[in-house]
Amino acid sequence: MAKRKKTVKTPLRHKQIHHKHFFTGGVVAFFLTGIILGGFFLMELSARNQFAGIVHVFKPGQVISNAYYDVRLDNVTRGNGQLGSLKPEKDKTYLIVDLYVKNKSSKTLPLFPLSQTYIKDDQGQTYGVGPAMVLQPFQGGDLVPGDKVKGQIAYEIPSSLKNPRFYLEGLSNLPVIIKL
Length: 180
Fold this sequence. Notes:
Structural class: alpha+beta
Number of helices: 2
CATH class of the largest domain: Mainly Beta
């Protein structure tokens, strides 16, 4: 009679199988986590894209619109010399922008041109609101849902400034950028 080999499960073999499944489960969990986090990252990028700003540079006259607001820069003029009773510093001029903002959200939006708007050049230098008197001043303050405001803002900039950009921040995650 032939001897039959006896097969016995050894604890070592059982541990090897257990570790193999544990490793496979860890790899699957790692990839699923990466896919989920990647999806959140893409959703965040998509949401940021909605707010214009960094991705798109607009031109005067274009309406920049999203779920929260409409923004339009209607006109841009350079003041040569004196504007009102104030004269710009030597080698500077006034840049006057006509701005329109409408609150389309269900929340009140704070809108303060002194701290939320500026002009920026190609080298990164910024220029804030200047002391010029304008005909229709842009009135800042809280913009309630459905309300709109329109007016002028003046900036004192170098007369030789090329390629200025108008920035409006604080209405959403990213600034509105308008190439002047």
